[in-house]
């Protein structure tokens, strides 16, 4: 595996840690395990209003985790950097910005 792929693997693994921590904190909040059971009515109303936003963030984190795991699998298989749709190489700039990209810009748009 080339140095670009090794660098991307390191970035992806770090991102897994970040997203996992974020997702766990959101899930804990949504389960009410963050102290809001002791909150007053006004606080509970604020928590409830924020829950919908947090659920969206949790869904986004879980989706990104899935994409990252797929990218790591493609690295192991030797197909990372190759478009899953057309088979052409994904531009190095795209991979640098989004190492979990599975499609080239043309196929992604």
Overall shape: elongated
Summarize the helix and strand pattern as letters. HHHH
SS strand fraction: under 5%
Number of domains: 1
Proportion of helical residues: 55-70%
**Low-pLDDT sequence parts:** none
Radius of gyration computed on alpha carbons? 18 Å
Strand segment count: 0
How would you sum up the major sheet?
A: none
In DSSP terms, counting alpha (H) and pi (I) runs of 4 or more, how many helices? Answer: 4
- Termini gap: 28 Å
Mean pLDDT: 86
Structural class: mainly alpha
What characteristics describe this protein?
about 110 residues, mainly alpha, 4 helices, about 70% helix, elongated
Describe this structure in a few short sentences.
This protein has 109 residues and is an all-alpha fold. The protein has one domain. It has helices spanning 3-30, 41-77, 92-97, 105-108.
List strands and helices in order, with pairings.
Elements: H1 3-30, H2 41-77, H3 92-97, H4 105-108
Helix pairs in contact: 1-2
Structure in words:
The protein is mostly helical and 109 residues long. It has one domain. It has helices spanning 3-30, 41-77, 92-97, 105-108.
């Amino acid at each position: 595996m080339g140095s670009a792929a090794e660098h991307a693997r390191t970035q992806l693994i770090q991102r897994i840690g970040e997203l996992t921590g974020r997702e766990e904190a959101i899930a804990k909040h949504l389960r009410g395990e963050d102290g809001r059971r002791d909150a007053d009515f006004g606080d509970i109303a604020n928590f409830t209003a924020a829950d919908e936003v947090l659920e969206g963030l949790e869904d986004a984190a879980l989706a990104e985790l899935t994409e990252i795991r797929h990218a790591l699998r493609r690295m192991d298989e030797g197909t990372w950097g190759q478009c899953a749709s057309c088979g052409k190489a994904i531009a190095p700039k795209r991979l640098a910005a989004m190492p979990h990209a599975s499609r080239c810009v043309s196929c992604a748009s």
